[in-house]
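Ticket #263: bound-state structure for 48F.
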Amino acid sequence: MLGTISDLEVSRLITRDYFEMLESSFESDVIIVGGGPSGLVAGYTLAEEGARVTILEKRLSPGGGIWGGGKGFNRVILESGTRDILAEIGVDATERDGYLVISSVLLAASLIKKAVQSGVDILNLYSVEDIYFNDKREVAGVVANETAYKMTNLHVDPLTFQSRIVMDSTGHEAIVLNCLAKRGIVEIKGEDTMNAQMGEQGVVEGTKEVYPGLIVTGMASAQFFGTPRMGPIFGGMLLSGKKAAHIASAKLTAQPGTPQASP
Ligand code: 48F
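RESOLUTION: The complex was predicted; output attached.
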């Protein structure tokens, strides 16, 4: 027997649990904008160290570009240097000709599961549309709205989320960087033409704090620094997430405190 069901209680339980998470995610140590491969790895790594991490993801499903594999063929390729990360998320890949081949469904699902189980709050259907600056003009949070409102062009004001560090993990869209660039605060070079070898290296090297409070990961870093794009090879994204987490972690340790509140 399944037990008795109250439809009202189902609604109450969903909203109570959800809004508890929402309220606590207004103040995080790290906000990660975009739940693709680099954002998910950064998220679970930081959460496992005890950081309060919120991922804001505009789509229904986190996972970003992983799901589509190459042209919808649901396999992705990883370099052998990602074995430790695969072990952390509890999956294995097939070694072929010196590369690792893995189901994109398994990789996306495992990264999401690891992030949630590590304590990352994932708010899906939230589209980040702007940045919150503290009074020192450092990036100290983001402004986000319901994705459906953005899609239907409804005039509804957004909510503000604050944090000590923000990551732009929005891939090719580089939304946080674009919020700075449109005001002339930073300049975005735009990703270069395809070259997986150079692109993968560039993504990892370009994972940096590029503006006070803002770390770029994954393809957002390629957008910023103008390094090449690459195809369905994801090792650089996973390693970028790891590097971003280490940069954030060092910053959190060096400057303990809480997100800067509004006056
Ligand atoms: O694009 P995405 O997977 O980012 P990534 O971690 O990985 C790039 C690879 O997928 C792939 C590649 C290069 O060929 O290897 O492109 O750099 O994930 C970015 C996530 O950010 C979300 C988007 O839905 C996706 O899940 N996103 C984009 N704009 C916003 C956003 C926004 N305004 N607010 C919230 N999330």
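RESOLUTION NOTES: The longest strand covers residues 159-168.
TICKET STATUS: resolved
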